[in-house]
Amino acid sequence: MKKHYWFILLTYMLMQLSGVAGIRLFHYLDIGATQVERFAYWTIFSFTLAFIIILFLLRKERKNESLLRGEPSSVGASVGWAIGGFLLAIFAQSLAANIEINLFGVEPGSENTEMIVSVIEVTPLVIIVTSIIGPILEEIIFRKIIFGVLYKRTNFIIAGLISSLLFSLLHGEPQHLLLYASMGFTFAFLYVKTKRIIVPIFAHVAMNTMVIIVQTVFREDIEKMMKQVEDMQQVQVIIGGLLT
C-alpha cells in the first residue's frame, strides 16, 4: 500500500476516536450550550479537518488514479452509472432491509439515523457532514483504499466482503450488518465498473442526502403514515380474532 494511504487511514481513525476528548475540550472552552451541541460542533470540526488533511495527502495522485485495472469509463458513462448507482443503492438497501425483517426478525429503523437526525435538528449545519463530507471520506477509505488494495491482490468477492464488513461495523449497528454491507457492495461495484471513485461518491452522497431529507422534511408525514399502518394492523388483529 502507498505510504500516504497509511497516513490517510490513520487520520480517519483518529477522527473517529476523537469524539470523547473533543467534546470534553469544547466543554472546557465553553463551546456549545448542551452536550448535543458540543457533539455537533466537534463532528463538524473533526470531519472538516480530516477532510482537508486527506485531500492534502491525495494531492499528488494523478487524475482518476486508482488501484483498479483498466481504463476509467467515459464522462457520459460515468454520469449514467452515478445516477443509476444511486437507484441501485436504494434497491439494494430495500432488498436487504426486507431480508433483515422477514428472515432474521430485525426491527426496522436505524438508531444511528435517528441520532443523526436529532443532532441535525439542534444544529442543521451537521447536514454538511452527514450528506457530503462523511460519504466522501467513507468512499475514499473503504472503496478507494481498502477495497482497492484488496481487489488488486484478490478478487471482487473477497475485497467487497472485507471492505463492506468493515464499512458495516463502523456504523455501530451490527443488527443491520446486511443493510450496510449491501450498500458497500453496491458502491464497490460502481467503482469497479467505472474505475472512477467519483461515481460511488455521487451515489453515496445522493443516498445520504435523500435519507436526511426524508427523515427531517417529511418526518411528521412519515410518523402519521406509520401510525395509520399500526392502526390498520390492530384492526386486522381484531377482525381476525372475531372471525376465528
Automatic annotation (TrEMBL):
Keyword presence, Iron-sulfur: no
Domain CAAX prenyl protease 2/Lysostaphin resistance protein A-like: 124-210
Transmembrane segments: 7-27, 39-58, 79-96, 116-137, 149-170, 176-192, 197-218
Keywords of this entry: Membrane, Transmembrane, Transmembrane helix
Domain of life: Bacteria
Pfam families: Rce1-like
Single GO MF annotation: endopeptidase activity
Keyword NAD included in the entry's annotation: no
GO biological process: CAAX-box protein maturation
PANTHER family: ABORTIVE INFECTION PROTEIN, SLR1288 PROTEIN
Protein's name according to its UniProt entry: CAAX prenyl protease 2/Lysostaphin resistance protein A-like domain-containing protein
Organism listed in the record: Metabacillus litoralis
